Structures
1.
Amino acid sequence: MANVLLIISPQDYQDKEYSDTKAALEAADHIVFTASTVEKAHGKLGGIVECDALMYEANAEDYDAVVFIGGTGCFEYFEDDAAHSVAKDFYEAGKLTCAICAAPGILANCGLLDGKEATCWPGEENHIQEKGAKYTATPVQRDGLIITGNGPEAAHEFGQTIADAL
């Protein structure tokens, strides 16, 4: 049993990516916590999530993995110092550092995808490649501590891959 932190944007996170990833992790008996920059986040498809923590308070020592959920709202984190700090802290602590849909761009922007095999939402591949990622175009890709997924249809497999890696 592991503690996993899902990070969603305050507005327009991708509901299916969040719910399917969370469900796969919980089905494997992992404990899932949700963080954002607000206490109540709103999904692109109408979901509302009461967050357990604020993103900038996240401490890698308290969790076994971090997962950035995509959706159009995640672009808010592309240049966000707090999001970059969280991603780097988890990775440097030897914890799984994961992202789905457009969110691998967050990992790319803080240097974590340089030289790594990764996937992302079609249309974002140039962005991650410019930051050094080896784009694979697969639904889910694992390279060491980094796990990436390409979008909502891959969310269950993405969550299962994280669960299995834990």
Note: The two ends are 8 Å apart (CA to CA).
2.
Amino acid sequence: MERDKSLPGHVAIIMDGNGRWAKRRGFIRIKGHEAGVESVRQITRECARKYLDQLTLYAFSAENWKRPRREVNFLMKMLKKFLINERPEIAENNIRLSTIGKTEELPDFVKEELAISMDESKNNTGMELCLALNYGGRAEIVDAAREIAEEVKQGKIQEDEIDEALFQQHLYTRNMPDPDLLIRTGGEMRISNFLLWEVSYAELYITPVFWPDFRKPDLEEAFENYAKRERRFGGLIR
């Protein structure tokens, strides 16, 4: 089966509001992160069943290392548990797992499970689930600029050959389509250093719903809103 063309092919989500969700219930912050895992499971499953091409989740930003050590350690352990526990779900829904970001800086116990999950799912033919881990949009652009500068220095490319297409081929997302729809939960009106280059023409959808409460009806609402948009990419609809 094919995706309904009224749906976005690539959805990116800033999963915000875990801490506020927990605080409103009198819980410590990590309880919000735990609750958010079920949203990841349900939203990933629903997107796969709708035959989306890709779902990219902002799972851990480069700035998240600034959080209290206890919280960061918990997030890393939770990520390891998620990777292990979700392998049957990934297989059942024919999902390919990938990642963007400086994953080499993650703890070894996370990198090991990430490598296993990616290897086991590499031949799946359904939706790609991309986890943005230790990811920062500015760092991605700087890294691309450094790679290009080095290739110019080595004589591999000429300065006048540098254009948007060449630059894009040096981004972490070089083998991925740009997002059609960027969803942010939790109500904040910012992009938070996420896919700065790639979301240039993405449709933005902000919902006040905290991520642990975000479920299929909320996703459907986002898709219905998207279907009403006219995507002009700087041009005019004739």
Note: Strands lie at 10-14, 54-61, 96-100, 128-135, 181-184, 203-206.
3.
Amino acid sequence: MKDFFLYLMIYAGSALMAYNIYRYMCFSRDVRKHGNWDQEQRLFNIPILLLILFFIGYLVVGIFGDPDLVMAGILFGGSIFVFVMLLLIKRTFERIQENEQLEAELAAAEEASKAKTFFMSNMSHDIRTPLNAIIGYTTLANREKVTYEEKSAYIDKIDMASRQLLEIVNDVLDMSRIESGKFSLETGCVDLESCIQEASDLVRTQLESKKIELSVSCDVSHKWVMCDKVMLDRALMNLLCNAGKFTEENGSVSMRLTELGGREGTGSYEIRIKDTGIGMSSEFAERVFVPFERERTSTASRIQGTGLGLAITKSIVDMMGGNITVQTEKGKGTEFTITVDFPLADPQEEKRSGEGDELSFEGMRALLVEDNMVNMEIAQMLLEQAGFLIETAEDGKIALEMTAASEPGYYDVILMDIQMPVMDGYMAAQAIRDLPDTRLAGIPIIAMTANAFQEDIKKAEEAGMNGHIAKPLDIPAMKATLQHVLKNS
């Protein structure tokens, strides 16, 4: 019985030592993955050799030796000691890894905090600048004995500052949607040549005011493609406006569209936007697509911007499956190059129903549903100027009751806010669509709301609405939406 326990300890110790050798080999492999251990490579092999020698010694004693209790105890205890030491070393290594990960997360959090602080500082400056102009010129316009010409000039400057403020808000909201993964593309049939020309026409006046020459060229065999025109316009406008901002008087900006080829059913395109502006340092060029980044120079510091335009542009190009690069030299200008593949589309003639036969709003009756009195007053005045007769409701429930109590054809259109007390716009629209009188249920309903994202437009469609007008109100866009909805109702 005594010999049985002696040999049991020796063979158990041998098995444990074999397991220790396996554990150590796995551990040394993990350590090598964690860092560069080239200089310590031989040191890692020494313990393996020693453990193997111990293991052989155990087997020799177990097979050929005549062990006593002391020797068996030492061998078994040695195996347990090695096992415990390897376990402690492994746990220590895991704790080191955890600490390194926590340090990396802390560093990332600190960087994020710095970026947030920097962003808030920028936003405070960039938002207050147009606000200062709006408040200041409003005060000047309200003074006594201000001439009509002076007041008109003040209003023009207020309009310019308010649009600048809206651009800042839109950039921040778009960047937030991109980072949250809620930004998506809506593809359709697009004429690339027209898209390029339209974008250049929108900035031409701004560039001409600074005596900057703008040249545009297109060299494509297939101009009709499937893409998101709104987002492509946004990317091009960001690049063109940046080129105009950072180019001094008597400089030049060029935009060139080239078809590089492609495979069957797909065209490969290159868009180059080049300026002769102040350029960028090579260090900043590497971070130019990082959100909220702006180069700190005496020239650039006087130019308004959130530092989000290029980050948004890159995100749009990335979502389109393309690539954007920059070549720049300080004092000599900048060139952005977009390369992207688009599915080809069949040439289509634009179908404009009733083109040249614009619908008159004179005498049409609209129900304006809005809970904010200021917004209601502004919308009512604008719609009345367009020729509408306006009736109002403060929430969706009142709008539903007024619609249900009206005669078919009494209201030509309902303009519905979304976020309202008692009953919101979605619920009100669905309730109107469920009215038993099909003529009342079919009244055109247009969302007029600050919920202006693509998912908001889709949600309005799902609620049974015929169109969407975003706040703050863009008068031409509002009239175009009303024309489209009323012509097709």
Note: The longest strand covers residues 333-343.
